[in-house]
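Lab meeting, item 3. Inverse folding demo.
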């Protein structure tokens, strides 16, 4: 049984003060809440301050992006050991905004994944099709390619640290949530790929979150599906009350 994961991706929102305030309130809300894994991914500027607030809390910290190199002449970039040093337990890799706006490919996703694993940070690998790909019935081919190439050369031991987030691009920030049935179909397919690539344990044990216009109103029906193990939430994670509503679906 996979513990439901509810993760907040704040994207490019919130100052340090706002992030700290949110984290303090969230940590309090999550006190004693054993039945959820709650993760927040603030902007890089707030990671250290939030990590200090979350010390001793069950809420986990994630970064939104990183570089695959350990150190060197990469102006503006942040490495996995730097994130680990700030107290990050998780990293989002391959978010569709990084793929479409910043040229992330399955190959760079894989490099980042390898680097994160090397430094003990748990990767949340994001996959998802665009509207055009869905309409041309390419969804399953795209997802298969993203999962197989993104997770290339990962050992069966390491796969235990990896989670997947299925985020159909057409559902992100649009208010158009995938129906639970449609999401479930892709989640089941991802699980089959994991089983065939990494063995049955990986197929059964890997958490697969859904992302795309998740709200306190629609989380329940999504989580009712057997292959949906959590949610990666954008807009509705920016407000403590709304995010807490999702956590307590
Ligand atoms: P929204 O919840 O705003 O649609 O964003 C989803 C997302 O991109 C989370 O990573």
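The presenter then showed the designed sequence:
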């Amino acid at each position: 049984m996979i513990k439901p994961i509810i993760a907040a991706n704040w994207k490019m929102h919130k100052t340090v003060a706002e992030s700290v305030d949110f984290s303090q309130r969230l940590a309090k809300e999550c006190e004693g809440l054993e039945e959820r894994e709650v993760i927040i991914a603030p902007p890089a500027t707030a990671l250290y301050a939030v990590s200090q607030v979350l010390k001793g809390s069950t809420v986990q910290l994630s970064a939104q992006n990183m570089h695959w190199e350990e150190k060197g002449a990469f102006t503006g970039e942040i490495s996995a050991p730097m994130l680990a040093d700030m107290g990050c337990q998780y990293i989002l890799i391959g978010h569709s905004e990084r793929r479409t706006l910043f040229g992330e490919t399955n190959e760079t996703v894989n490099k980042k994944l390898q680097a994160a694993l090397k430094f003990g940070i748990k990767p949340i690998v994001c996959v998802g099709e665009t509207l055009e790909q869905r309409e041309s019935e390419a969804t399953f081919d795209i997802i298969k390619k993203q999962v197989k190439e993104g997770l290339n050369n990962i050992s069966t031991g390491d796969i235990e640290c990896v989670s997947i987030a299925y985020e159909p691009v057409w559902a992100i920030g649009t208010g158009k949530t995938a129906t639970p049935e449609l999401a479930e179909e892709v989640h089941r397919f991802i699980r089959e790929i994991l089983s065939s690539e990494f063995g049955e344990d990986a197929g059964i044990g890997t958490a697969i979150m859904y992302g795309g216009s998740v709200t306190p109103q629609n989380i329940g029906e999504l989580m009712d599906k057997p292959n949906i193990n959590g949610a990666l939430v954008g807009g509705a994670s920016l407000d403590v009350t709304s995010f807490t509503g999702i956590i307590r679906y």
